Amino acid sequence: MRILIVEDQQKLADSIKKGLEQKGYAVDVIYDGGQAMRRLEHDHHQYDLLILDRMLPNLDGMIICQTLRKMNVSLPILMLTAKDAIEDRVQGLDAGADDYLVKPFAFDELVARVSALLRRPNQSIITELKVGDIVLDTVKHLVTKDKKRVDLTSKEFAILEYCLRNPNQVLTRDQIMQHVWDFSAESSSNVVDAHIKNLRKKIQKKNEAIIETVHGIGYRLNR
After folding, report:
1. 47 φ, ψ to 5°?
2. Would you tell me how many other CB atoms lie within 10 Å of the CB of residue 25?
3. d(Cα 203, Cα 163) in Å, to the nearest integer?
4. What pLDDT, in 10s, does the model give residues 103-128?
5. Staple partner for 157: which of 65, 84, 152, 212, CB 3.0–4.6 Å?
6. Which residues pair with residue 135 across a beta bridge?
7. Could you give the CA distance from residue 33 to residue 8 in angstroms, rounded to a whole number?
8. 170-183: pLDDT as tens digits
9. Given a cut of 50, is residue 60 above it in pLDDT?
10. 3-class DSSP assignment, residue 140
11. Which residue, 190, 141, 181, is CA-closest to 198?
12. Which residues contact 197 (CB under 8 A, 6 or more apart)?
């Protein structure tokens, strides 16, 4: 899962990013409302969730939220704000936010709300993904093969989840990098190849080809 944080308080934004990455999410951060809107206009499909501050420089978070909904973007939005009056919460929800969290907040509550938004049925987010005898549970962050637990790194887990959500489709190395790594990370196609190699060792037997190499392009998960 990939999350975009739009928050102008850099210390807070970086703290949330670090905590969510420790939970296995890929996280990007933007500190400016105008810059965030420009990115979302073109790349909103890359994200599974938007954590959006209400008061931002150059473009207010409320306007960003309203604009996305007018564009028919169904990306789940968790709005953050220092305003705790009932009317402020109502305004945020009316603007199209899916949830509303008042600062200051406990990080555990943020994680719980993020998890809840990502598994909402109306977002068509499936929390248990299967192929053959491999089962990936996004809520428990658990992978099993033939009912036995498989220990994956956070990046291996994210790559497998992305492949399972796009079965029988050729995924380019760039697509995998964009979905699993944040845009500030220094990654290359060789890094993707190395993670795929390690992932295969953990989930494939010698005679299996669950994740197939499509030479010169990328990879395909076969169902």
Report:
1. -110, 150
2. 21
3. 13
4. 889 999 999 999 888 876 544 455 68
5. 152
6. 130, 144
7. 8
8. 999 888 887 887 66
9. yes
10. coil
11. 190
12. none
